[in-house]
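Sample entry (165 residues):
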Amino acid sequence: MRVPGSRVGKARLATAASAAAITWLAAYAFAQPAGDSAQPAGVVNAQRAWQNWTLNCQGCHRLDGSGSDATAPGIAETVAKFLRVPGGREYLIRVPGVATSPLSDEDLAEVVNWMLWRFDKEHLPASFKPYTAAEIAPLRARPLRLEAGEMRRALLSQADTAGSK
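Predicted structure, serialized as tokens:
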């Protein structure tokens, strides 16, 4: 006799829910920003970049890039602002989670380029030049530590001031 709520029934329900959630998450996370059909600059394979983001970054920065005080700061509608100020471009690669990522320099450049496009396309400067593996390597060799949070605040303050002019 089959009992509602049995382990088998719950397992089937969990499997179906997981499949639906994965489909929704993939559609949400890989979706292009509204009104954009272009391939992100510096991204050879957007699906690979999204997969690398999902496996290496999303756990702390969350699906929507909102982050949290307990794990990692939000990047949604903020991350490309760093590109507006001196030292900001370098900062993005030297933050601990990026600099110490297990990804290769090439894959990391692709993920960062994808992330800028996916989470903050509105603030990407018109003059944006995609990160390259050659640029990533020396920057991640000098990761930020305790100073990362204060540097983030200072750079964002500068970016906000520059953006209001």
